[in-house]
């Protein structure tokens, strides 16, 4: 694939986009041929000028002006091997970018957490992406435009569409085989003796969509040893500091969603009060942040309330920087796949389609480890696997 650029960051001047550009400038390959793209040439040039000059051994990204129209997006996709898109809300602005990438057999990565959009996109474009050898990945994340994405979803989709897309199997590819998942817990709040008090996590719906699509891809295309099995199920939660806080959090969120859905004027007021897209928190010097995930796993045939394995992952930075790291490293790993340097991953095997980050395989995990991901898997008795 002989093209001028390896990677183009689209929407580079937004909050997450600028974090991605900073990350790639610091951690990307020195020989990376890349560009920053968006609608405002002056803001793009200012971003490039702000990059740390001490990294003089690296090539500065070029500046490319590209509006959200078919001609500009097609021109952009034709000139690069991969587009990293941070322009949201994706349900409003993401589809033309994905379509342009698929049309020109260009790889695509973004940071969306909009599960309704990804489910509909996968249903419509997966087969064409496979035929055109275009790999499309959606590492989920949060950014300054998260609130705007939530409101855009409420304005774009009906409640019925949102409920349908939230079903566990909605994101799965057809013909993945039988699926007999364990029943989901009846209550949104629960106590786990290994994970503590847990409450409803709205972003877990997006996580579930990615995990279940991974399950279906492996069931259909993976080796026998890679498959999760037809009893596989996934539930995600947010850790709470106690039973009372867990229920308070869930009830407060439920009332807020109910009011937003039933009273449009409240929705307009909240949009007006909310941070604007392209913005995000300004971290103070010396602040210490971390993001931590915990998971328990129960083997097939074992009572799900008696898990046998505990896994922990942690990154010692703020959630927005974590998101920038995840999408940037997914893009850099996918570039390796496109270069033919990875022969064992599902992404390489399929060559195209609406896939998930898991399709990048162990090389993606190894890159994240170098970027600061700490992880450990132990059995319940404390023996490290």
TrEMBL record:
Keywords: Membrane, Transmembrane, Transmembrane helix. Residues 8-124 form the Saccharopine dehydrogenase NADP binding domain. It holds the Pfam family Sacchrp_dh_NADP. Signal peptide: none annotated. The keyword Transmembrane applies. InterPro entries: NAD(P)-bd_dom_sf (IPR036291), Saccharopine_DH-like_oxidrdct (IPR051276), Sacchrp_dh_NADP-bd (IPR005097). The chain crosses the membrane at residues 7-25, 134-154, 243-263. One of its GO terms (biological process) is glycolipid biosynthetic process. It comes from the Eukaryota. GO terms for cellular component: lipid droplet; mitochondrion; plasma membrane. Belongs to the saccharopine dehydrogenase family. This is Saccharopine dehydrogenase NADP binding domain-containing protein.
